[in-house]
Amino acid sequence: MFSEKFICAGYDYTTYTSHVPAPYFRKTFEIDGEVKKCVITLTGLGFYELYVNGQRLTKGILAPYISNPDDLVYYDEYDITECLVPGKNVLGIMLGNGMQNAPGGQIWDFDIAAFRGAPRTAFCVSTEYIDGGIDIFEADGSVKTAPSPVIFDDLRCGCYYDARLEIPGWSEPDFDDSAWKNALPAETPRGEKRLCEAEPIAPVREIKPVLIRKCRLKEYITRGDVVKEAKKIASDERDGFLYDFGVNSAGTVKLRISGERGRQIDLQFGEYFAPDGEPDTSNICFYPAGYSQRDMYILNGEGEEIFEPVFTYHGFRYCVVLGITEQEATADLLTFVVQNSALREIGSFGCSDGMTNKLQAMTRNSDLSNFYYFPTDCPHREKNGWTGDAALSAEHILMNLDAVNSYREWLRNIRAAQRADGALPGIVPTGGWGFEWGNGPAWDAALTYIPYFCYVLRGDRKIIEENATAIFRYCEYLSRRRDERGLVAIGLGDWCPVTRVKSPLEFTDSVTCMSILKKAAYIFSQLGLSLEREFCEKLYNEIRDAVRRHLIDFGTMTAIGSCQTSQAMAIYYDVFNPGEKPEAFKRFLEIIKRRDDHVDAGILGMRVLFRVLSDFGEADLAFKMITRPDYPSYGNFVERGLTALPEDFLREEDRPNSLNHHMFGDISAWFIEYIGGIRVNPFLADPSEVEISPVFIEKLDSAEASYETVGGKVSVKWHRTSLGINLDISADSGVHGRIRLPDGYSFADERGSIEELHSGNFEIIRE
After folding, report:
1. Which residues make Cβ contacts (< 8 Å) with residue 354, sequence separation at least 6?
2. Does residue 222 carry a pLDDT above 90?
3. What is the pLDDT of residue 192?
4. Which of the four CATH numbers 3.40.1380.10, 2.130.10.10, 3.40.630.30, 2.60.120.260 does domain 6-154+163-197 have?
5. CATH 2.60.420.10 for the 689-766 domain, yes or no
6. Alpha-carbon gap, residue 748 to 95, rounded angstroms
7. In this structure, CATH architecture of domain 344-641+657-675
8. C-alpha distance across the termini of the chain, in Å
């Protein structure tokens, strides 16, 4: 039962200038009889921590789901039968701000969102007794409330905790709550009520520091458009101790410390070291000084104390600890608790080249540290569900992780945010910001790309059924956004290009529209929606004709811009006809040679250029461009010691933006699909069908990849021998397809280059 009886501790809420502690709530209830089953359904706006008789039961961290409560309100359900005792029992809840009140979201207008307000909760407890009796109660004015030791919390900024304000035993039955106030009625949010089906956010491992040293934190330089005035609470001290955990990921820390009552410990999180080697957090400078990725703990002075922040998380490699002595700066003081959505691994890749393996690990790390219910753009500065990043990453994430359930939940939020005219915001959830901001088709593609890849790779028909109407509404929207030439130019385009060379917006937007429409037409064909399919096919052809008429030089077979992005996109998305592609590809190689075989593209070009090279027999060049150690390249990220993929290809001497993004991560899919050779559903007919077609990169001695299709697991291993290639394939009985060797290779027993898929060991020779 989704109770709509919301309560709160008060109507004031936290701002940068006024902090309101996270409230505790207690509800006592009696158990009189033998319980068959007892279930609680609850929500928190923003986040909650649930306790029953002192036992924490919260699913993961940051519960419930992060959403705009004007669109969707998420509840969680718990079976609490085993927690109950005869007689008096206590339900305990602590509430954080979450999306309901996000002081750190002022850049995206969350501070003026219609849903902003004090934390509130609703719950319903239903008890079924063995004798058939049923007892049901909801939140009401009988619930008692008091302030918690969490004196400030924000999803993006951090958590401030004053242990002197702790209330021992507050969630246990024998606690005396007579001095507590009664809860107040709160407004019921307007959004649809539902249970969350996305995977919870959970701790996955703990990391000890690899280095501890004295440091001086660089002066924090905030952006000019953030709040200038804020309540001063954080320490001004900049001399502290650096805890370097060796990997840039996402989560929280666990602090263990003893000391005098009232001493303040500040924890400042970051990912970037200035050229002099000192920590610098100004690359994530969206918030007032003292609020940017900072947790704070005030000791109560009673023996060893353990602090784990709540209602927040951080993206970081290091933590600067302020307020401790040199003697206290030990490895036992601080632990990195890595957290992300609990997504199951379904794909893998490894090879004989260490740099390539590091790039695969970096991509996987970026994907997971940016998956908190939904794909975010970064785990520190913004933590927003940017649709463009998600569209670019959908295929490679699904080639590594089973994210279908989480994607489905997020798509509900995208549909809820879509305007009646079909327009989409650049971030989801949003409080209204992001429409017509500049995101455009390459961002909006998430609505179509994610269901498409979930269906093609994972066979999930439900997800295309659920999103078909919204996809068609968006396709209609695109039809109205064409200019007098029939082209579309309304977005950011090829974001974060390596150099100032950038494909014209009218080209990247229009070609992206072609891609959206082609995938939409396929979706509608699978659903038997012939009118919608015909609409998309007609619009596709009209935009394609416009691109070919206005943006292609057929004398040289060059797309406008004469750059890597334009040429690769024109080939990959079929702007060129099949007979034109060989000449267009020759031109593509010439463009690459101009940059001495270095990458020179933004997010849209980088998504396709390695695929185009490989499809036309230049996989070795693609591998070289990816792994070369000199700038600009992915390999240069490894040479610089990065452990996640950055937001852009800035030079090492430049202050970076984010050092943990996932939008350039398609290389992981390329590793699995091309080097490993696992092509899932190659003919768009059956997700249990695979084509095993590895490319034997000259610089590699061996490679291996695996993927769990919906029909079963398939594994591929190959290594070089004195005679050629030894290829080992293992495929479950539910997987079918074929083995297709690349040009110039054949099976040693004169069977040619194509073989029906089956498990076995194959000797491959070069013709």
Report:
1. none
2. no
3. 97
4. 2.60.120.260
5. yes
6. 66
7. Alpha/alpha barrel (1.50)
8. 68
3-class SS at 292? Answer: coil
Tokens of 27: 């509800």
Amino acid letter, 649: F
Task: Please choose, from the candidates 576, 638, 620, 626, the residue with its C-alpha nearest in 3D space to the C-alpha of residue 601.
Answer: 626
Helices (H), 580-677: 581-594, 603-606, 609-615, 619-627, 634-639, 666-670
Token pair 């996809």 is found at: 471
Q: Which residues contact 276 (CB under 8 A, 6 or more apart)?
A: none
* CA–CA gap between residue 568 and residue 503 (Å, rounded): 11
Q: Residue 163, Cβ neighbours under 10 Å: how many?
A: 17
Q: 431-456 in b/e burial notation, b at 16+ Cβ within 10 A? A: bbbbeeeebbbbbbbbbbbbbbbbbb
- Calculate the CA dihedral of residues 49, 55, 59, 63 and round it to 10 degrees: 0
What SS3 string covers 461-512?
Answer: HHHHHHHHHHHHHHHHHHHHCCCCCCCCCCCCCCCCCCCCCCCCHHHHHHHH
- Model pLDDT, residue 1: 82
- Rounded Cα–Cα distance for residues 609 and 564 (Å): 7
Task: Report the pLDDT value the prediction gives residue 276, as an integer from 0 to 100.
Answer: 95
**Domain range list for the chain:** 6-154+163-197, 203-341, 344-641+657-675, 689-766
Dump pLDDT digits (tens) for 129-171. Answer: 999 999 999 999 999 999 999 999 999 999 999 999 999 999 9
CATH architecture of the domain 203-341 equals: Sandwich (2.60)
pLDDT in tens, 356-391: 999 999 999 999 999 999 999 999 999 999 999 999
Around Cβ 218, how many Cβ atoms within 10 Å?
A: 18
Q: What is the pLDDT of residue 686?
A: 98
Q: Which amino acid is at 741?
A: L
User: If pLDDT is split at 50, 70 and 90, which confidence band does 81 have?
Assistant: very high
User: How many angstroms separate the CA atoms of 111 and 294, rounded?
Assistant: 20
